[in-house]
Amino acid sequence: MSDYLTESDLAEQRHRSRRRRTAISLSVVVLILFGAFWYSYSYFKGSSGDASATPTTVCSGGKPVKVTVNVYNATTRQGLAADTASTLRKRGFTIGSVANDPLHKTIKASAQVRYGPAGVKLAPVVGATVSKPVMVKDKRKSATVDLVLGNGFKALTAARAVSVTSCTTQATK
Q1: Among the four 63, 119, 157, 160, which has the fewest Cβ within 10 Å?
Q2: Contact of 130 with 153, CB cutoff 8 Å
Q3: 20 and 61 housed in the same domain
């Protein structure tokens, strides 16, 4: 045979090259679709807890009060406060601010729950959403409660009912 390629040999090489590119492109598309479906599945699977079990109202003088939570991130993990706030919203909490910790504290515990005198009865409801929180009373005037996520934070606890002493008679009705 000769050392020269004929026109039919060149056409065959181009055809093989095109088939290889098509196979690679289809493989990449399939992997991207699989990743998207897996992410969606894990997102919905992770948020499908019993959200109705966490009470988001407590009683103050016999009247229900909505719990407003500011969620702050005191770690270097990006998006932690936003993800946690989303889950708390699904559980029925009213979400205020979502940001990095405005006090720039280093928190080794799972979380800090900061509240003022008006939020004394609301703080345990927020505190029950994390494992072993550190409760910190400050001088704020509002009834909002800050949930500051620390380095020990892994995930929110399973949704469960919280007993608030001033509401026990009303909660059992």
Answers
A1: 63
A2: yes
A3: no
